């Protein structure tokens, strides 16, 4: 039997679905987390063959002892995974120490966590990227600005999403932003104008895609957080031309296999010397795990699919037909959210009534997700691009 150690199986909530599908596929799922067992969701407790609670997953010694105990109890560990950006480094270190070869180890973890270390890998893949500098103070930013000009984007080197990112448009912005120094390493990049699109895939043991999707993000998460905009994004019914090729080439350059990948690109809306021509893709950053928020659910809605089963099939090496089913009826899944602090053209109750036949999911976001995702949200599935656009407008148009 395959022994799968799932790190932090209760968070994010999508991990419960992964554990359920793995267990139903005959995998022995062994959990390691910091939540008391009795506080785990009942569905998760039913899926776990055993659970080892640690005081903190930040303490590597505790995590190591947990996996060692589970290995003693159940035999050789075949997989170690969290499907969580925050624990990628922990996953990799545990794989090295327990000789787990179904995923990457620490040798490449820096290249998928550090925004500066990603750059050489993109170059090896033949994917252009914006010029960048690692900075520690205002002088470093000003020196970079003298080379490439404004505007610039500043973001934590090891940040997740748009947390801590901001726009710099002048020397005065730099002086204000960096006046008190930086708590964490930062990078600054030249600003790229383009459509934000991501290549999302599940890769098998050879690095081949068994599931692919494209996520379109107008506007970017950084703009949403910094300008208090409303999040609206969609899973496209088909991949834009060239995205699969550049996305897969990028995944292979990073050495990815047996996992979800979520790779963000700019698709240039005009020619940009040094980067490419209109329609070309420019690498932004890679996230070698499932996309966050509701996006995994949206894969399923857009494809009438079960990506949790597709992933379980990769782990077991069996083919239940889940991947083939996901290719039969591609449609558009649209997420749109709004904030309590603003007034909107269409009342929320009217939105829910108007799209009731197409709504796949609706609700209120937890407080942790509100800055990026808004308070109220709904997701629809539709084959009609115009209907998708109208839904987005009805949710987000403010008075």
From TrEMBL:
InterPro entries (alphabetical): ATP-dep_AA_Ligase, ATP-grasp, ATP_grasp_subdomain_1, CPAse_ATP-bd
GO molecular function term, any single one: ATP binding
Domain ATP-grasp stretches: 119-316
Domain of life: Bacteria
Record keywords, A-Z: ATP-binding, Ligase, Nucleotide-binding
Pfam families, alphabetized: CPSase_L_D2
PANTHER family in the cross-refs: ATP-GRASP ENZYME FSQD, FUMIPYRROLE BIOSYNTHESIS PROTEIN C
The protein's name: Carbamoylphosphate synthase large subunit
């Amino acid at each position: 039997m395959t022994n799968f150690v799932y790190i932090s199986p209760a968070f994010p909530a999508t991990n419960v679905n992964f554990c359920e599908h793995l267990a139903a596929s005959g995998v022995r799922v062994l959990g390691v987390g910091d939540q008391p067992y009795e506080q785990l969701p009942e569905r998760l407790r039913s899926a776990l063959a055993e659970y080892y609670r640690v005081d903190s997953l930040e303490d590597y010694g505790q995590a190591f002892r947990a996996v060692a105990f589970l290995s003693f109890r159940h035999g050789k560990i075949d997989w170690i995974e969290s499907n969580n950006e925050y624990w990628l480094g922990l996953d990799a270190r545990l794989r090295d120490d327990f000789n787990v070869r179904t995923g990457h180890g620490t040798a490449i973890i820096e290249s998928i966590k550090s925004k500066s270390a990603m750059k050489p890998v993109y170059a090896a893949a033949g994917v252009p990227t914006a010029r960048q500098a690692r900075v520690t103070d205002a002088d470093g930013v000003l020196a970079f600005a003298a080379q490439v000009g404004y505007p610039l984007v500043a973001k934590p080197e090891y940040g997740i999403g748009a947390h801590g990112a901001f726009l710099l448009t002048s020397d005065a912005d730099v002086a204000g932003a960096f006046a008190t120094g930086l708590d964490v390493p930062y990078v600054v990049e030249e600003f790229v104008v383009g459509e934000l699109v991501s290549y999302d895939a599940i890769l098998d043991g050879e690095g081949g895609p068994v599931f692919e999707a494209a996520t379109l993000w107008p506007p970017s998460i950084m703009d949403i957080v910094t300008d208090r905009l409303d999040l609206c994004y969609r899973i496209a019914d088909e991949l834009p031309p060239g995205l699969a090729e550049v996305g897969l080439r990028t995944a292979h350059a990073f050495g990815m296999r047996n996992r979800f990948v979520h790779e963000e690109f700019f698709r240039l809306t005009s020619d940009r010397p040094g980067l490419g021509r209109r329609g070309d893709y420019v690498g932004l950053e890679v996230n070698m795990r499932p996309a966050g928020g509701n996006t995994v659910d949206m894969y399923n809605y857009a494809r009438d699919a079960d990506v949790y089963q597709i992933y379980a099939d990769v782990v077991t090496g069996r083919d239940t037909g889940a991947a083939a089913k996901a290719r039969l009826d591609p449609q558009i899944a649209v997420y749109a959210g709004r904030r309590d602090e603003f007034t909107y053209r269409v009342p929320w109750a009217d939105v829910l009534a108007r799209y009731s036949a197409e709504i796949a999911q609706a609700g209120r976001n937890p407080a942790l997700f509100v800055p990026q995702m808004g308070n109220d949200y709904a997701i629809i599935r539709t084959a009609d691009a115009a209907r998708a656009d109208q839904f987005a407008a009805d949710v987000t148009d403010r008075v």
